[in-house]
């Protein structure tokens, strides 16, 4: 592990906390353009362990309706990769409400990053204090061949996904090439389309648990309430909530109280 | 018919799925097992004698191949060169699209798949997919942008009559690119029993190569037919329209390694390249990643995909296949941007001169002829990719 990664907030989170990790996703620039840091701060104050900020894209193929619509709205609002970095520019610095200290992941699709420039993107991530990325349409093989050295140079983690269909050999390969954690997609699906945790999902969770991977695991897709969070936490180091939180923002707005109430419901 | 689907060219795909800088498989992990299963098996499936027998038999008896290579005398006189038309418009279902769907459904069967999902823009690929699903008795789900469903109602009815379920894509701009997104999402949600029949030489590797191989029958026939008619296998030019680029890939395929044959691609300029209502991808696009491959695509400065426009729904796509991006980038292909009005004029001209009403897509290829500075002794093959019946309502507005 490089010097940079030992100082990475996600890496250090997992060195002192291994259970019931809660990662909450929201879309940058949603519901309003300037809500990004407000929502980020409220999630930190509500006690989430990792915040995953979605970088909106016109064609998010791995996402269901809820996140697609939030992407579309945020793009209408005028969000871009550049704008997001502007919004995050001061978040790690001292300020009246205190600095943002929660680990931050950026989730998005590769094309806007290619246009921004890979190296410039990693440089900005390091500069504003982003700890890692989730880029679903950049498969690990292509990442390793073309981009890994740049991300590593700037100490940015690349979080990889596995699914119930991922072969054991490929899971070993992904585990070996990953730092931070492994994102376990709970079932063959896009985001926001999974209802509850079935027995076949539990069997998959157990199968992965028994593999004793070197990386911690967080389960995402279908985690939308206390019960599903609790179940996922029994089989992994924690879970990721996405579409359910976007729906909550749509219905209840972005007040700190409402966001705290949501997080408390999940954690209970 | 004695034949093979082996590529013979330096423009063939690499084992990682690249044509020059373009191609690859930029797919979410959720699609990896499906795409990998296809990648590992498609070449051996295609090479298998039982596949070859069934494929060629169906192309002959069901599709009606070989399609004629027709010397268009009056058009030749008008243009001032020798123009042959490759009559893909005479294929069953009215366009070249069925060459690919026949091949892919045979692959799907050999992979043990029970359901087919597809995307469609104008509905031609959707109809070709619904057709082969009916033929083989497989369930068929076609995603189509809800705006396109209104614009292309007869094709929606055809697909339903053939037993397909047509699902409106209501996300984004509700056109072809969104139908493609929805079909990919459907495949993510149904990874085990479903095969995704992509309609063009786009998508993650191995789709561009697989579709190009199935369409390569077009250039294979051109070579034989031209030799029989003129004594030479290679023309000076092969001209085809490019949306995603499947008929062009098929028409170019067996000429790729012969620099004496200029490959000419006609893109849709819509109301004009700089009008803001265009689909001229190589003129307006930049390298990026769309629908699983690195290619040239129309996008904003921030990398968001731009919604294209063309009078022809089949060319109304913001990218091009990675093979075509490579042909453009390497200079192997000549790309022309053809406006709506130029295409309409070429469509009316062919109808009056030769008694053939072309699809609006194919009319773009015809319109390129007058821009190519052809010489009297030039021999040109134009891929007439589809017939114009589906476009009558558009043509009739300009009669």
UniProtKB/TrEMBL annotation, chain A:
Active-site residues, as the UniProt record annotates them: 52 (proton acceptor), 63 (proton acceptor)
Pathway(s) where this gene product acts: Amino-acid biosynthesis; L-tryptophan biosynthesis; L-tryptophan from chorismate: step 5/5
Top-level EC class as recorded in UniProt: lyase
Keyword DNA damage appears in the UniProt entry: no
Underlying gene: trpA
Source species, domain of life: Bacteria
InterPro entries named among the record's database cross-references: Aldolase_TIM (IPR013785), RibuloseP-bd_barrel (IPR011060), Trp_synthase_alpha_AS (IPR018204), Trp_synthase_suA (IPR002028)
Functional description taken from the UniProt entry: The alpha subunit is responsible for the aldol cleavage of indoleglycerol phosphate to indole and glyceraldehyde 3-phosphate.
Full protein name: Tryptophan synthase alpha chain
Automatic annotation (TrEMBL), chain B:
N6-(pyridoxal phosphate)lysine carried by residues: 97
Domain spans labelled Tryptophan synthase beta chain-like PALP: 64-386
Metabolic or biological pathway, per its Swiss-Prot or TrEMBL entry: Amino-acid biosynthesis; L-tryptophan biosynthesis; L-tryptophan from chorismate: step 5/5
GO molecular function terms noted in the UniProt entry: tryptophan synthase activity
EC class name: lyase
Entry annotated with the keyword Amino-acid biosynthesis: yes
Catalytic activity: (1S,2R)-1-C-(indol-3-yl)glycerol 3-phosphate + L-serine = D-glyceraldehyde 3-phosphate + L-tryptophan + H2O
GO terms under cellular component: cytoplasm
EC number(s) reported in the record: 4.2.1.20
Pfam families associated with the record: PALP
SUPFAM superfamilies: Tryptophan synthase beta subunit-like PLP-dependent enzymes
Cofactor(s) recorded in Swiss-Prot or TrEMBL: pyridoxal 5'-phosphate
Keywords: Amino-acid biosynthesis, Aromatic amino acid biosynthesis, Lyase, Pyridoxal phosphate, Tryptophan biosynthesis
Function comment: The beta subunit is responsible for the synthesis of L-tryptophan from indole and L-serine.
PANTHER family for this protein: TRYPTOPHAN SYNTHASE, TRYPTOPHAN SYNTHASE-RELATED
Record-linked NCBIfam families: trpB (TIGR00263)
Subunit (UniProt): Tetramer of two alpha and two beta chains.
Family membership: Belongs to the TrpB family.
HAMAP family documented for this protein: Trp_synth_beta
The protein, known as: Tryptophan synthase beta chain
């Amino acid at each position: 592990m490089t010097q940079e990664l030992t100082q990475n907030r996600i890496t250090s989170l997992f060195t002192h906390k291994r259970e019931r990790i809660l990662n909450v996703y929201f879309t940058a620039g949603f519901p309003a353009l300037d809500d990004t840091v407000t929502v980020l701060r409220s999630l930190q104050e509500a006690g989430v362990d990792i915040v995953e900020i979605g970088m909106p894209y016109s064609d998010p193929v791995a996402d269901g309706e809820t996140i697609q619509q939030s992407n579309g709205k945020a793009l209408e609002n005028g969000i871009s990769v550049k704008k997001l970095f502007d919004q995050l520019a001061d978040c790690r610095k001292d300020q009246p409400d205190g600095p943002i200290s929660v680990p931050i992941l950026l989730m998005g699709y590769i094309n806007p990053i290619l246009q921004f420039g890979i190296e410039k993107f990693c440089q900005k991530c390091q500069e504003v204090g982003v700890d890692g990325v989730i880029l679903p349409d950049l498969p690990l093989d292509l990442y390793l061949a073309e981009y890994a050295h740049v991300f590593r140079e700037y100490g940015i983690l690349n979080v990889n996904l596995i699914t119930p269909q991922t072969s054991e050999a490929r899971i070993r390969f992904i585990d070996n090439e990953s730092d931070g954690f492994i994102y376990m997609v709970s079932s063959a699906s896009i985001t926001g389309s999974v209802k509850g945790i079935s027995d076949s999902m539990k069997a998959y969770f157990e199968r992965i648990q028994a593999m004793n991977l070197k990386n911690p695991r967080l389960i995402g897709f279908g985690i939308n309430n206390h019960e599903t969070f609790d179940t996922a936490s029994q089989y992994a180091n924690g879970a990721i909530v996405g579409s359910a939180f976007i729906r909550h923002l749509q219905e209840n707005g972005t007040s700190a109280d409402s966001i705290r109430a949501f997080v408390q419901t999940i954690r209970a | 018919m004695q034949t093979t689907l082996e590529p013979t060219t330096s423009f063939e795909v690499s084992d990682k799925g690249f044509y020059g800088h373009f191609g690859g498989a930029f797919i979410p992990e959720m699609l990896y097992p499906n795409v990998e299963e296809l990648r590992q098996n498609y070449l051996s499936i295609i090479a298998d004698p039982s596949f070859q027998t069934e494929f060629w038999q169906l192309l002959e008896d069901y599709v009606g191949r070989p399609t004629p290579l027709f010397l268009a005398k009056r058009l030749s006189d008008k243009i001032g060169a020798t123009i042959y038309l490759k009559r893909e418009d005479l294929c069953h279902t009215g366009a070249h699209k069925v060459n690919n769907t026949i091949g892919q459904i045979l692959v799907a069967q050999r992979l043990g798949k029970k359901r087919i999902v597809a995307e469609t823009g104008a509905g031609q690929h959707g109809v070709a997919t619904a057709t082969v699903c009916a033929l083989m008795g497989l369930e068929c789900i076609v995603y189509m942008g809800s705006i396109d469903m209104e614009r292309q109602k007869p094709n929606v009815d055809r697909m339903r009559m053939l037993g397909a379920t047509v699902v409106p894509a209501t996300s984004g701009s509700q056109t072809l690119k969104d139908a493609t997104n929805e079909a990919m999402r459907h495949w993510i949600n149904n990874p085990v029993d479903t095969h995704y029949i992509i309609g063009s030489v786009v998508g993650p590797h191995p789709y561009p190569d697989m579709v190009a191989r199935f369409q390569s029958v077009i250039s294979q026939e051109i070579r034989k037919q031209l030799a029989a008619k003129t004594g030479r296998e290679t023309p000076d030019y092969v001209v085809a329209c490019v949306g995603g680029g499947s008929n062009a890939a098929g028409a170019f395929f067996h000429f790729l390694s012969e620099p004496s044959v200029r490959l000419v691609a006609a893109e849709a300029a819509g109301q004009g390249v700089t009008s803001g209502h265009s689909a001229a991808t190589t003129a307006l696009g930049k390298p990026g990643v769309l629908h699983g491959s690195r290619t040239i695509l129309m996008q904003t400065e921030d990398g968001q995909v731009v919604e294209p426009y063309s009078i022809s729904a089949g060319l109304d796509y913001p990218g091009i296949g990675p093979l075509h991006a490579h042909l453009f980038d390497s200079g192997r292909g000549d790309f022309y941007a053809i406006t709506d009005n130029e295409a309409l004029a070429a469509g009316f001209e062919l109808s009056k001169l030769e008694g053939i009403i072309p699809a609006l897509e194919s009319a773009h290829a015809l319109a390129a002829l007058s821009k190519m500075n052809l010489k009297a002794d030039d021999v040109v093959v134009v891929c007439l990719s589809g017939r114009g019946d589906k476009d009558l309502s558009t043509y009739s507005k300009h009669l």
